[in-house]
Amino acid sequence: MESRVSARRLAVLLGPRGGGVPAYSWLADGIRQLVADGRLLHGTRLPSERELLGELGVSRTTVTRAYGVLRERGYASAVQGSGTVVQVPGGPVAGGGEPLELASLQPTADGVVDLTCAAPAATPGLNRAYERAVQRMPSFIAGAGYFPLGVPELREAIAQRYVDRGVPTDPDQIIVTTGALAGLAAVFRAVLHRADPAIVESPAYPNSVRALDHSGARVVGAPLVTDDLDGVAGVIRRAGARMMLAMPDFHNPTGAVWSDEQRARVAAMWRAGGVTGVVDETMADTWLDRPIEARPMAAYAPGCITVGSAAKTFWAGLRIGWVRAPHALVGAIARARLSMDLGAPVLEQLAVGQLLRTQGGLSDESRRGLTDSRHALLGLADRCPGWRVEVPTGGLSLWWHLPGDSSTALVAAAERRGVLLAPGSLFAVDGRGLERWIRTPYALDEMTLRRAADAIADAWADVAHLPRGSETLRQA
Ligand SMILES: Cc1ncc(COP(=O)(O)O)c(C=O)c1O
């Protein structure tokens, strides 16, 4: 389907006209920024010159000249019968998804919708943040460029975010990493010895479990804190665990959020059991309906280690994450990190610092888009009899309960219809079971997800109609 932007919408996106540059240059640069930021998608048809001049109150020559500049620079082309269409110079690069499995490291074929990935497109302000970061670079390029703990201004901005959320933090407690996963891997190396029992709620984010495995720890599964807190207490007591990996803020894949009381109780259990809590806050900022009321886990458990990321709030391609640790553990984690890499790229650190200072968290625009996308996938509840979901107030996925042991069969049927899904078993701590569950991320745009929902509903009909014995579906 061809997408187009109306003159009115384009005027809103462009915002008020700034002074100091000719009108055509302001218009061309504004549209270029919108393309670069992904707010005007590759292939979107621009309003006609006549429509736009009426809306912006500029002359026809201004619009003609601006469109001409965009064409010259490769940001637009004239298409016979369609007017002017914006484009990304060189065309869009197909994005690699969240690498849950080696198979998904391969580029996805055209037309296939990859729902193995729960990471959205970049925040609208990213391109501007990069431009500002480039302007800051001269202060850095005279030096060597190694910042194994992070560029000071980013460490300060991250610490300030914790202070704003009610957790006193000084920049010395922050280590900037190349993404949250690398942060977690450094933490595991620093706090665990070979064969130490380490507890993880199941289901879990699979890449963290793999990182834990690779650190030599003995992974022990526990129920979700939000389902069975007493069960978790029992596992902590029996396992003699040294560490517990937790995701209190929009757990991936379930979207569950720990209440104030659950946070306090888990903190007490960690204290009593001598367990180091490692808190993955990668999803913490992805609230859609309302922000999380409870404070970050570090407010309840001051001894815990927190890992965060810019991936879901700003863009996964930045590859910037961080660790916030008690002062006493910063040295050990920094040393473990140096066994893997010597620091994150400076330009990306400056861009994230810029975004944290100017935008704080997820943009309103991204939040609206994700809410529409979530709505598109919630339509599956009406179309797939027996599917149940607890609608999460944030995060990036719906975690569906299916009426039979049919997750793997559904993944195969959906793939035949052009949608890639990860089976429930992928999120099991031991890689088995969870056949009654499927995760559907809503990080892609609404239109694509409506198409994906149609294909998934058809795939489900295929699975539900398979003759008995040739599939694993058994009605509950
Ligand atoms: C819960 C969780 N932790 C960590 C990560 C990895 O984050 P990063 O891209 O910052 O390494 C992800 C990415 O999907 C995630 O969902």
Automatic annotation (TrEMBL):
SMART domains: HTH_GNTR. It comes from the Bacteria. This is DNA-binding transcriptional MocR family regulator. In the C-terminal section; belongs to the class-I pyridoxal-phosphate-dependent aminotransferase family. Residues 21-89 form the HTH gntR-type domain. GO terms for molecular function: DNA binding; DNA-binding transcription factor activity; pyridoxal phosphate binding. It holds the Pfam family GntR. It comes from Flexivirga oryzae. Keywords: DNA-binding, Pyridoxal phosphate, Transcription, Transcription regulation.
